[in-house]
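Fold this: Guanylate kinase
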Amino acid sequence: MISSWRQIFRVTAAAMTGPRPVVLSGPSGAGKSTLLKMLMREFEGLFGFSVSHTTRKPRPGEVDGKDYHFVTLEDMKRGVERGDFIEHAVFSGNMYGTSTAAVQAVQANNQICILDIDMQGVKSIKKTRLNPIYISIHPPSVQILEQRLRDRNTESEESLQKRLNAAIEDLEISKEPGLFDAVIVNDDLEEAYNKLKGILAKEIKQVQSGKNS
Ligand SMILES: Nc1ncnc2c1ncn2[C@@H]1O[C@H](COP(=O)(O)OP(=O)(O)OP(=O)(O)O)[C@@H](O)[C@H]1O
Ligand SMILES: Nc1nc2c(ncn2[C@@H]2O[C@H](COP(=O)(O)O)[C@@H](O)[C@H]2O)c(=O)[nH]1
């Protein structure tokens, strides 16, 4: 346990000196992955994705170690017991977690670390010294969210309903004053992306100037 606290301290200490990490949260299907992939494409090398662990099965096209570390429930539980995770949560029947190593790997490259995590993760990260910028991505409406999730064609009916129920709850919680630094309604994708870039402009400039000096 002591070594895991040391690890967490190292991550948080690095976060206080390097660029601030960015937490993207918001309902499943709101467009977090779409937006973060756009950022990583436009600003190649500036951002690094914190690759979470999950017990859910990979979707077609998802790559182990890139999109997620896909693990068994037993492995995940062992990792939690070892203290490998800064935060972890159960979402829609599967476990998800951000490992200290995932954040450290990004910070070691002096990149802006992006975490794509659910509301429980946000609440847990708030108790650490990671000090990220918290951004919530919202859909224009729950109806549009449902349509996007259906069109994505990744969920069973049961999983879809669980995600919609969580979405309704999380949209309510996200109104809590001070919980997020910014809320972006992802209606028109380009517009939402430009807002995201605006919010991160200072961090982007800071890392760009460091890389060019
Ligand atoms: N502005 C938009 N207009 C229309 N479709 C969109 C928009 N943004 C994202 N989408 C589509 O909606 C679907 C959900 O987006 P995405 O997978 O990025 O959501 P997510 O928030 O990362 O979901 P999850 O939390 O489940 O990983 C995708 O098929 C994506 O192409
Ligand atoms: N608390 C955490 N939530 C996470 C993490 N990685 C992803 N997520 C969230 O889970 C849901 C579902 O993701 P999906 O890929 O199965 O659609 C979504 O809201 C993610 O933000 C994590 O490490 N911790």
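The radius of gyration is 17 Å. Residues 157-173 form the longest helix (17 residues).
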